C-alpha cells in the first residue's frame, strides 16, 4: 500500500507542477491582455455613408456656398471693369498730353515765325501809335489762346469718339 500511495503522491506532485506551470503561462498571457485588447481593438477611421445622404450633403453645401461665390464674382467683375475704365481714361489722358506736346512743339516753331512777324507789325504800329500796338498784341494773344483751346477740344472729341467706338465694339 505504501508503494501505491507513493505513486499517487508523485503523480499528484507532477500534476501540481503541471498546474503551476500552466498558471504561470496563463499569468504571462493575461498580464499582456490590456495591451492586446487595445491593439486588437478596431477603430473606425472612415464612416461609410449611403450615396443619397452624401448627395444631400453636397447639395446643401452647394446651396450654402453659391450665393457667396456669385456675390464675390460680381464684386470682382465690377472691380475689373472699374480698372479697365481707369486704364482707358489714363491712356486717353496720355494720348491727349502727347497730342498737346506735339502740337505745342509745332506751334512753338510756327509761333516763333509768327511772333517775329507780329513783332515787326507791332513795331510799325508803335510808330503809328502805342495804343494800336497794345491792342494788336492783345488780339494776337487771344488768337493763340483760342487756337490752343480749339485744338484741345478737337483732341478731346477724337478721344471720346475712340472710347465710344471701343464701348460699342465691346457690346
From TrEMBL:
Belongs to the DASH complex SPC19 family. GO terms for cellular component: DASH complex; spindle microtubule. Residues 98-133 are annotated as: Disordered. Keywords: Centromere, Chromosome, Coiled coil, Cytoplasm, Cytoskeleton, Kinetochore, Nucleus. Pfam families: DASH_Spc19. Residues 136-163 form a coiled coil. It is found in: Chromosome, Centromere, Kinetochore; Cytoplasm, Cytoskeleton, Spindle; Nucleus. Residues 100-120 have a biased composition (Polar residues). One of its GO terms (biological process) is attachment of spindle microtubules to kinetochore. It comes from Byssochlamys spectabilis. It comes from the Eukaryota. This is DASH complex subunit SPC19. Transmembrane segments: none annotated.
